Amino acid sequence: MDTIATVLSGIRATGRLHFGNYIGAVRHFVTHQQQGNRCMYFIADLHTLTTLRNPEELRGNVIEIVKDYLAAGLNPEGSIIYAQSSVPEISELSLLLSMVQPLGELERIPTFKDLVRKNPDNVTLGLVTYPVLMAADILGPQATLVPVGEDQIPNLELARNMARRFNERFGQTFALPEMLEEMVKVPGLDGEKMGKSEADNAIDINSSIEIIRKRYLERGITDPQRLRASDPGDPYNRCRSIYPLHEIITPGEANGREIAKACIAAHIGCVECKKRLVDNIAVILEPFQEHRAALANQNDYAREVLHEGGKRARRIIKETVERVRDKMGIVMY
Ligand code: TRP
Ligand code: SF4
């Protein structure tokens, strides 16, 4: 019995990584790698095409994200790091799966409905089949653990259903992926999910700590009803940016609630509270930034990592796709 997990996750290359991606996702990727699982982390460049139509930007983002991954502690020995498009078998699997996937289910997915509502003129076929391609990403390597954010749960449910249905109809083919809901939603400066809105609410993982401090002091929202430091604050309900981030990154805070208690008792002011938060951001970001700076000019190395990762991923995924072809009656003549 194979007891090590195959951990798989993908990220779209719509822009540069921000602190929310780092804390919510990439940090966990590194932990899974350190635990000795088979880790597959890819850049979903094909999925990116549903919204990003600038080829230069896409190419650039992919390379920058790989460098961010490496600086964060992923390494090509411990993890298979690849671009989705380097494994054409993923696209083939997506097509094969689309033959047994009812359209209605895809149209009912909340993320799809959201995107249609927001941008009714941009409903491409690729957007409708987005979750099918995502299922191919997951089922191709027989992933068993998929760390995802809350917004991806419906897509993962669909992948599980597709696996179950396919296995029933054609015999055991796909491992059933478990979702790992560990990717927390990291609040941005305005209290909304970091990087989500059009609002400029994200913290760039490569900006200097001074700039981050300035941004928090000037723009980080606190309890709006707390006008003076002598007023008791409400960290849990009314402080939507600073306190929730303390809970995620400040050591001991999630259990001890020292800052929350100090806020409620009016023993700490918001400026001091923000400064402590930024000190904790610095502890996390400083080693990352040092490593990242050393990689700044290493684009060839990043491409090499993707090339090797693509070859390794391809060997794994090809096996599944050959089996799927065979079960469905498709012969490579
Ligand atoms: N749809 C995911 C997102 O937007 C990215 C993604 C693509 C993904 N394929 C995946 C995540 C497979 C996990 C597994 O965040
Ligand atoms: Fe939020 Fe901290 Fe101010 Fe309390 S002291 S309202 S937790 S920023």
Secondary-structure map:
Elements: E1 6-11, H1 19-34, E2 38-43, H2 45-48, H3 55-72, E3 79-83, H4 88-98, H5 103-107, H6 110-118, H7 125-128, H8 130-139, E4 145-149, H9 153-170, E5 178-183, H10 209-219, H11 242-249, H12 253-256, H13 258-264, H14 270-295, H15 299-328
Parallel strand pairs: 1-2, 2-3, 4-5
Helix pairs in contact: 3-14, 3-15, 4-8, 4-15, 8-9, 10-14, 11-14
The structure holds tryptophan and iron/sulfur cluster.
Residues 8-12, 44, 47, 134, 137-138, 146, 148, 152 line the site of tryptophan.
Write up this protein:
With 333 residues, the protein is mainly alpha-helical. It folds into two domains: 6-187 and 298-328, HUPs (Rossmann fold), CATH 3.40.50; 209-293, Tyrosyl-Transfer RNA Synthetase (Orthogonal Bundle), CATH 1.10.240. Helix content is 54%, strand content 8%. It is built from 15 helices and five strands. The protein has a three-stranded parallel sheet with strand order 1-2-3. α4 (88-98) packs parallel to α15 and α10 (209-219) runs antiparallel to α14 (270-295). The two termini are 35 Å apart. The model has no long low-confidence stretch (mean pLDDT 95). It binds tryptophan (TRP) and iron/sulfur cluster. The site of tryptophan (TRP) has 13 residues, from β1, α8 and β4. Residues 222-223, 226, 233, 235, 239, 242-243, 263, 268, 270, 273 line the site of iron/sulfur cluster (SF4).
